[in-house]
Structures are given as structure tokens and as C-alpha cells.
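Revision sheet: C-alpha cells.
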Amino acid sequence: MRMEWVQKRDRPRAILFCNGWGMDGEVLKHTPLPVEWDLAMLYDYTTLELPIEVPRLFDAYPGVVVVAWSMGVWGSGVLVPFAGRIRRTVAINGTGMPIDESFGIPPGPFHSTTIVFTEENQRAFYRRMCGSSEEYRRFAEAAPRRAPRDQQAELFSLESAINTRKWTGLSFDAAWIGNRDRIFPPRNQRRYWEGRTDCRSVDMPHFPFFDLGWEDLVACV
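Predicted:
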């Protein structure tokens, strides 16, 4: 796991963004950065070792907002030791059971993606993630700078960890569910989150940053 600063202007508040599988900071170029917030990002779940920069972040800011997207919802479990210093948590298009027939991505399709992931599969995944041809065109202008082999290694590691580790995750204050999500089925997301937190259905595909802004996600802080 890696952490990097996306925006650091010595603001009094910080967002820690748990990115999705196979992503990097390029995907954040699709939406304006939050003016009054510093923004750090966790990504690459090939290993789940907590970066040393994370404790320093929590020491520097009195209340951190955690925004987790897709596989980052599960990956955010590494932050449980800091739960008492988190001000707000928002999940987007993901669940705490990401490989599951009823509550996440069905195991068959997930494993098939893991076994074969080429440049062609990468493009197909991005198209499904974006929802429409226009959204895919916009996404392609600032797509992750990660090779399919690198993304596949991360996916293998995630599949193994998810299937063998008991997940102890954060409690989330809100879950935003895209009703056009073709990666995490919306019905599975609703089944997982209903009764656990405030669920909000949004007209968006799996990739959320054409439709959501950071100000939307931290509006209640």
C-alpha cells in the first residue's frame, strides 16, 4: 500500500482518500480538488502494510475525513487503529464484502478478471467502470499510469487477502451507491449497507468523479 499527497497547502483539515483497485492519482484530475482541505491518497493494495506517512497524517490533523471508493472501502480497514481520530467516513460504490454473490462482486467474474488481465481487458474494464462512451472518453484523457501486469498483481493479492482474512472495517457514516454501477451491482451494495448506514442512491456509474465533487462528500462535516 502506498500513500501520496494529492494536495498539501497546510489547510487545517484533511481528507484521506482510499482509492480503488488499479488506480492512482491520475483519476482525481477529473474533479476540482477541495479548496479548504488537504488531500492524501492511499492506493495499491498489493500489500496491506500501513505506510509510515499515515500515522503522521493523523498526528498533524485533529479530525480526518475518510472517503473510500470501490475496493478502497475494504482497504480502509487498515485505518481501524485511527478510528477515534476520524471525523467522518463516506463509502462510494463498494462494500466490506467485495467478493460475494450477494454483497459485492460475484466470485466467478472477479476470479475470471484476475486470471486474465491484458491491455484489452483493461480497456474493457475502464469502459464498464465509466458507463458511457462519452464518460470513457473523458476518463481516458487522464487514465491511471499503471500497466495491466501491475494491476493484475494487485488483484491477485486482493483476492487472496479478501478470501483468507477476516475483515474488520471502519464504520461508515454514509454510503453513496451508483445506480448505473456495472462493477459492484447496486442491488448488492444496497443489501450490504441497508441497516448499517445512511444509503444514498446517485445517478452515476462505478467511476464517481464525473458526478460527485469533494464538497458534496464533506458537506456534513
